[in-house]
Amino acid sequence: MARTDSSFVPALVPPMILAVVDPWIWKPHPEVWLLVLAIVAFGWWAARVIGPKVVPAGQPVVTATQRRTFALAVVLLLVAADWPMHDIAEDHLYSVHMVQHLLITFIVPPLLLLATPAWLVRLLVLEGDLGSRVLRRLTHPVVAGVLFNALAALTHWSGIIRLSAESGGFHYAAHVTMFVSALLMWMPVASPLRELRLSPPSQMVYLFLMSVIPTIPAAWLTFADGTVYGNYDDGYELWSISVRSDQQAAGLIMKLLGGGYLWTIIIVKFFAFSHQHHSTQQLRPAAGRRPAGRNSVGGPVGPPG
User: What is the rounded CA–CA span in Å between residue 45 and residue 53?
Assistant: First the structure.
């Protein structure tokens, strides 16, 4: 088979068809720009207008770390959702599609949560009202974990993949739904409100379960005999990557990159928790022993008077 990447034009393929499938032709995505601009505008409005009115004098509205984390999250969201990653992921390589999903579910959501000050969440979700009750119910580890993984499994169904490729509106709505479910899934670990977080040991168990569940679709993609998603088998092999190699790479990305990322967080949390636990321990004398230099009634030991 002749190469069909953009660096070589087969004589039998009309230039018009190549222009249609070439992923390097810039395509505007105004819906993505509007979403990113809305997030940036909300962050600016909260930090510059609302924060100074509700945060006590002398306390920072947002920290420098929160500003940098917010900027990084916005940049990564734009990279994942805009051209060229969006177009390559949707039309050509499912492995790139998997990288895109890792960005919008595993990396950007926890960064946004870590960048959000607690006062803002308390202001938006008043304690005791309907919003607070719904938030606590949806961010319960069992509910959030099941909801996120159920949606992740659904988005790997071939019918959903085909519909996403055919309908831009459905594709956008599916990504927004996944992003929101990922925010809920990360709340027990990275919530701005500490009362919504699990204890460090429970966080490690929770993340371990989140790393185990995706093993099933990852193995399915890696060891599938034929083509799983027909819409990626369009005769155009970007970078000369075959459809079979592409879906195998997608399964490995889900398992190795996604699982490795979560396991890295688990290891970091384990050592941080161990260090904190060790530093807070207080040494005390063993039972039945008393410190040297003291008598049985607590006075200093000396020669008899």
Answer: 12
DSSP string for 109-166? HHHHHHHS-HHHHHHHS-TTSHHHHHHHHHTSHHHHHHHHHHHHHHTTSHHHHHHHHH
Using CA atoms, how far apart are residues 247 and 28, in angstroms rounded to an integer? 27
**Burial of 121 per CB tally in 10 Å (0-12, 13-18, 19+):** middle
Using CA atoms, how far apart are residues 244 and 5, in angstroms rounded to an integer? 17
| Structure tokens, 277 | 């636990």
**Gyration radius from the chain CA atoms:** 26
**Number of helices and strands in the chain (H, E):** 16, 0
Q: Indicate the burial class of 172 (C-beta count within 10 angstroms; 0-12, 13-18, 19 or more).
A: middle
For residues 94 and 229, the answer to whether their CB atoms sit within 8 Å is yes
- pLDDT 10s digits, 40-94: 999 999 999 999 999 998 899 999 999 999 999 999 999 999 999 999 998 889 9
Amino acid at 41: A
Domain boundaries, the chain: 25-51+60-278
- Residue 294: which residues within 8 A CB-CB, separation 6 or more? 300, 301
Average pLDDT, whole number, for the chain? 85
Spatial separation of the C-alpha atoms in residues 247 and 218, rounded to whole Å: 9
Peptide bond before residue 303 is cis, with ω within 30 degrees of 0: no
Least confident of 35-44, 147-156, 284-293: 284-293
DSSP label at residue 46: I
The amino acid that residue 16 corresponds to is M
128: left (phi over 0), alpha (psi -120 to 50) or beta: left
Distances in whole angstroms, Cα of residue 137 to Cα of each of 104, 132, 160, 180, 196: 23, 9, 28, 15, 10
